[in-house]
Amino acid sequence: MSGRGRVLFFILICVMFAALSGCGGGEEEIPMGRYADREVKLPPGVFDYMHPCPDGSYYLYGLDANLTCVDAQGEIEEKDRSWEKNANIRDKHVVGVSDDGACVFGYAPNFWNDEELEELWIKGDTRYLYYYVDAKGERHALEPHGEGYRKGTNLHIFAFSPEGGLYAASENGMYRIDAESGVTESLFATSGQVKSVVFADGLLLAADSEKVYFYDMAREELLGGSTVLDEFIASHAAGGIVMAVSDEESNVKLMEDAAESDGTDDAKGDSADAADEKGNAQVLYMACRTGLYRFVLGGSVIEQIADGQMTALGDTQRTPLALQVSGSGEFRILFSGNFMVEMYYDETLPARPSRELTVYSLEENGWIRYAGQLFQKEHPDVLVRYETGMDGDNAVSKEDALKNLNTRLLAGEAPDVIVMDHMDIERYAGKGVLRELDGILQPYLDDGILYRNIVEGMRMTDKEKIYSVPMMVYLPLWLGEAMYLEGEQSLEDVVAGMELARQKHPEGAILYTLYPKDILLQTMPVCLPAWTKENGSLDVEKLTAYYQAVSRMWEIDSAGFDAAGREAWQKNNMEWYAPTDMDMADIGFNYQYGAQQNFGETWLQLGFLMTPQVGMTGIHVSKANMAADWQQKELDDVVTYGAYAGQADNVYWARSIVGLCEQAKEPALAEEYMHLLLSDQMMRKWWLDKPRNHSGLTIRKDSLGDILDIDNIEFGQTMGFRDPTGVNYPDFWPTEEEKQWLYQMMEDADCCYRPGTMLEECAMETGVRVLEGELAPEEGAKEVERKMAIAMEE
Amino acid sequence: MFLLPGFSGVMIFYLLPFFEVARRSFYQSGNGVFTGTDNYRAVFENGAFLLAVRNTLLYMAAGVPLLMGISLFLSLLLRNLVLRRKLVSAMLLPMAVPAAVMVLTLQILIDRQGVINGVLTHVSEKITALPDFSAIDYLNTEWALVVVVCSFLWKNTGYMVILWLAGLAALPKEVEEAAQVDGANRWQSWRYIIRPGLSGSFFTIGMLSVLQIFKSYREVWMVAGSYPQAHIYFLQHLLQNWYLKLEFDRMAALTVILSLVLLVVCLSLQKRTD
After folding, report:
1. B247 touches chain A (CB under 8 A)
2. Size of interface A-B (CB pairs under 8 A)
3. What tens digit of pLDDT does each residue of A261-281 get?
4. In this structure, what are the phi and psi dihedrals at residue A723, rounded to the nearest 5 degrees?
5. Contact flag B233-A790 (C-beta cutoff 8 Å)
6. Is B227 left (phi over 0), alpha (psi -120 to 50) or beta?
C-alpha cells in the first residue's frame, strides 16, 4: 500500500469510528405533544357497535342493549326496543345504524319456534334473519333477495351511506339493499371478510384483511385501489382494523417521522381521489393494533398519528370495532369488551417517551399487558414495551423462543421484567439472570398482605432466596356428584370414585377426557411436585404409581363407549378443541361448554379453581355455571365440590410468575412495576375490567376478599347472566361458608406446581404412550428416569 | 492485497467469532468472572458429555466407513454403465427430500405400528417355524443407533457416489487400459492404479462424511426430540440443551474442543492421504 493509500485508509477508518460512535450529534431534545387516551364511561349495557354521526354524536347498539344515542355533549337518549323481547330474537349479531337513527340488524332466532330453521342450525347452516327499523321506530322483517345474492348468505356488516342507502357485506362480497323491499344487488366481490365500511363523498370504501376497495356509488363501478393502502392493510389488519373518513380540516396532529411509505404528502397515488363539497381532500383514518393512522385519499403516504404501544390500541385482548373522528382532531374508538376510549392530543406529554421498560413473557399474558398499560398511564415518560416470545402469529416454538431469549441475555440485551410462566426458574435464577426479590417482598409479607405460604413456595432450593413471585394461583378442585368424591384425599380415591361412577353409569364418559393427554393434564399438576426426591432425583416408584392410576382412569373412562364412539366425539370437538395447544386452563373452560354439549352428561370433573366469581369458568366456588346445565337435569342438589389432592398435598398452580432481571437497564422502573403488580389496585381493577378472565386467584388477601365480595363487582358481561343482581341464579352467589373455605385453601396451599418443566414435558410425552398402551406403567417410568438422568447429567 | 477481501470475510464471519467463543470459554457466563480452565474441566467431567462423545464416535465409526465403502462400491459398479446418469440422479433423491418428509417416512417405517414391524409380524405369523415376533419400538431401544445409521446412509450415499465417480473420471483411462493389456486383473487394477489415484478424493469424501455425521443431527432431533434414547444422544443434543439451559460457558468450551478435534482429524486425514 502506498503512502497516499495508507492515509486514505486511515481517514476511512476514522470516519467509520466517528459514524459508529455518533460523533457530531448532541443530546437530542424530545419535542412535546402526543396523543393519549382516556376511557369513556359507557351507558348501561353491553355495546359492540357504534355508528359515528357527522355532528359528533354517536349511536351505540349491542347484543343485549337498547339502541342508545349519545350526543356531542354526552347526553344519552335510549330508543325503546322493548318489542325485541317478543320478536323471537335470541341473539343480535350484526347491526347497522344510520345518521337519523334507522337501523338494521341480523339475529339468530329462538329456533325451537321454527322447525325449518332449527333443522338448518342443526345441520350447521347458521342462517341469520334480519330486521329493519326506521327512524320513527316502524319495523319490518328484512328479507334480502335478488340477482347476485344467494339465498341464505349471511350478511355480517351493515352500513348506511350519508344519503341513507343501505349496504351490507357478506363473507366475500358487498351488496346494496333496498331497506323497504329487501331487493339486494351485488356490487363487487371481496377476497376476504370485510372488516370496515365507510363512505367518502360518493365513494364506498370497504376494507378486508388484504386491501381497501373503492366503489364509486354514482357510477356504480369499482375503482382502482391504492397499493400503499393495500400493503398497509395486509400488514396491519390482523388484530382488526376500523376506518373513518373526515375532511382535512380536522385539527389532527401527526407523530414525528410518521410516514409509512416513501413519497410526499401531496403526491398523487393511484387511488381514487375524494374531496368534499368545498373541495377539501378527504382523509381516511384507520385504527388498528399498531396505532392510529391517516391517509389522504388520492395520496400515497400513510402517516401515524398515535402509536399502538402507547395507547389502548395496543391491547391484544381487545379488537377495535368502530372509529369516530371529530373536527377538533380527537378520536373516539369503541373496542370489544364494552370499552371505549377518547384519544386526545396532550401537549404536556413528550412526543415519545424518554425511557423504556421492557417486559418479556413467553406467551401472551393479558394481566401483564394490562399492568403495562396502567403503568404507562402513571408514567407518561415511559414506554412499556411488552414482548412475547410466541405471539401466535409467527408460529415460534417454545424452544425457539427460549433460544431467542437466551441469545438476548448472552448479548446483554436482557428485558427488565420477565414473566417466568413455562420457564425454568431455578435455571435462570442459578445463572444469575434473575434478581433476588426478598427485599421487595418482605414488607408485603411482614404486613400480612400476601399469602406467605404461596410466596414461600417459590423459594429456590439451592440459593434459599426468592427470585420470582406468582401474582395469581389456581387451586385444584373437583366437582361432581357427592357420593363419588366426598372426602377424597388422593389419586387412588379419585380412581375409586370413578369406578363407583362407572358402576352407576355404565355408558358414556365420566371425566370428559377426549384424549389421553387430557387425563394427564388434569392430574399431573397435583402429582408432579411429589416426584422429585430431596436430592433432586426422580422418585420412580411414585411415577410408576401415577402411571398405573391414570391408566386405570383412562380405562374406566373409555369403558363407557367403543373406539368408534370416542373417535366421533373427538371429531365433533376438533373445530374448537385443539388438544396439543391447550393447557389445563383452556380445558377447564372447554369441558364446560364444549364436551358437555357434545356428550350430554358429566359425572365428575377434575380441574382448577381459576376464578372466585360466579358464572365464569368451568369450575368455581359457587357451582352456578356447572349448575346452569345441570339444573335443567335436576341434578343441582347432588352436585358438590371440594379440594382434591393427588400425590402431593396442598398444591397450588403458580400463574403470572414475575421476576426482575439482574441486568435490567431500568432497575428502578422494574421495581416500581413489580410494586404495581402487587398492588391491590392492579389486582382488583383487572377483575373489575375483565370479569371473564381466567387469570387465577390473587395472592393479595385483601384483593381476593374484595373480588369475592360480589357486591363490588359489575357483572356487565358474564356469560348468560343477564341480570347482575342474580335473578336467574339467586341461590348461587358464594356464601360466607364458601368464602371461608376458599380462604382456608389459600392459606394451606404451600406446594408449588410450575408448568413447563423438563420433568413434566417428559412425563407427559411418555404418559400418552402409556395410556395408549405402547408402554407399561413401569416401562414408562423407567423411560422418564432415563431421560431425566441425561438431563440431570447435563 | 489480492487475498484481503476473501480473508477479511473469513476473519469477520469465522475467525473473530471463534476467538470470541474461545475467550468466553475461560469466563463464567452471566457474571463474566474469569474461571481459567474450569469450564473445560466441567465439560470433561460431565456425564452427558461422555455419553454424547461415546455415541458420536460410535456413530462416526459405523457411519463413515459404511458410507464411504458402500458409495465407492456403487460408484465402481456404475462407472461403466450406460444408465449411470439416470441411476445417480435417482440416488440423489433422498438429498432433495425435505427433512420433515424424511422424518415422516422414517416414522412410517420404524414406528411400533410401522411398516417394518408389520412385515415382520406378518412373516412370523405365516411361517409357524419362526418364533413369535413382538413389535419393536426401534427408536426407544438399542436399535436406535442402527436406525440412525441406516437413515444417514440412505440420505448421503447418492451424493458420495457422485463424488467418487468424479474422482474415478479424473483417472487416466490409458494407464488402466495399459495395465489390462499387460495382464493385470481387476483386483490388481484397483490396488495399484485406482486406489492410489483416488487418494485425493478419499480425503475430500472422508472429511465430508465426517461433517455429514454432525449435520444429520436435525433428522435425529426431529424424530426423537431433545432427549432421545441414550444410544442416539449426540454432541449436538448436548449443545442444543446447554443453549436452552444457559450453559454458555460450557458450550463455548465444548465448541473449542470440537473445533480442535475436527482440526486434528482433518490434518491427520490430509497427512494420511498425502
Report:
1. yes
2. 49
3. 443 343 334 455 555 445 567
4. -110, 110
5. yes
6. beta
